[in-house]
Amino acid sequence: MNEIRPWRTIHRRTSRQIMVGNVPVGGDAPITVQTMTNTPTSDAAATIDQIRRCEDAGADIVRVSCPDTDSTAALGQIVRAARVPIVADIHFHYKRALEAADAGAACLRINPGNIGSNERVAEVVRAAKANGCAIRIGVNAGSLEKDLLEKYGEPCPDALVESALDHIKLLQDHDFHEYKVAVKASDVFLAVAAYMQLADAVDCPLHLGITEAGGLIGGTVKSSIGMGNLLWAGIGDTIRVSLSAEPEQEVKVGFEILKSLGLRTRGVRVVSCPSCARQGFDVIRTVQALEERLSHIKTPLSLSVLGCVVNGPGEARETDIGLTGGGAGKHMVYLSGVTDHHVRDEDMLEHIVELVEKKAAEIEAEMSEAGLSEVPAEAAE
Q1: Adjacent-strand bridge partners of 184
Q2: Is 308 annotated for ligand binding?
Q3: Is 204 annotated as a binding residue?
Q4: Same domain, 242 and 226
Q5: What is the dihedral of CA 302, 296, 44, 85, to 10 degrees?
Q6: In the chain, how many domains are there?
Q7: Fewer CB in a 10 Å sphere around the end CB: N or C, the chain?
């Protein structure tokens, strides 16, 4: 189960590393998972509550909107309460960026070309440097500059990349290099092509996203296809799954994408069958219950839940804990890929939860002894 297989290896694009608060982004740092709050930032209590749920889901970085002075006035309280770095989302008013930097934001999401004069850009850069802020340049196909739309006729990869390079130059002209860049689009083909082109043109960290992806199911599919293609190609240093869903759902989907590619290892990786008439127990309901009961587990481990003995033993050999449906209400439990004991229907759910929690505690102790906060992705394979 810990064997490293060459055909599973992803060679990540080489990028320079920046710091977003105390979180490294780029270089050899783990790919971070981000989300964004949807509460009014001026309501500090509601925003902090939502950030807490995102933190519990595993978010590495959280972004909040700062469209007005009420929002930046509340930002200091939010930053102090948060356990993760906070990114202040700024669009056009440079003074909001200055206020956010002074309030303790770890990063400013701002496009320097959209805030006016060169002196305004210089002011933002000075504030970012003085407060140790990074900057994220966020190019979006839905809000490209008019001159680029006139030049190219429509949003296209060349237009997105040219916009990104123009914004980068404004920062570089002021000797600022602590930036990361996104070139997002809701069209999967456009976003992927733009990111691939940009990856060849710059060495900074790239923030991946398929913007306005949709609801929980549709948006998850679009994001998985788009970001999955890029991550598989080694492109991407931090990700945000943009869903019309609660922010913590974005975090969960983000981790599932990274886990499926072996790029992060947080939590329980469940292998389960779609179920059929051969099933010895209700696989669908069992998996739903297990995912809910085990959502608090942060330690990386694998669990297979198969309804019958056709594929069950094979899958169980590859997971830490396995469950295969049997006859007469008795089911086989596998530990570390080896058949171990039977469990009856009425005891099955509680028993598997207990086994997973016990295994997680063992792994956590081993990680602590080794001085690790997260199992390296390649080791988890």
Answers
A1: 140
A2: yes
A3: no
A4: yes
A5: -40
A6: 2
A7: N
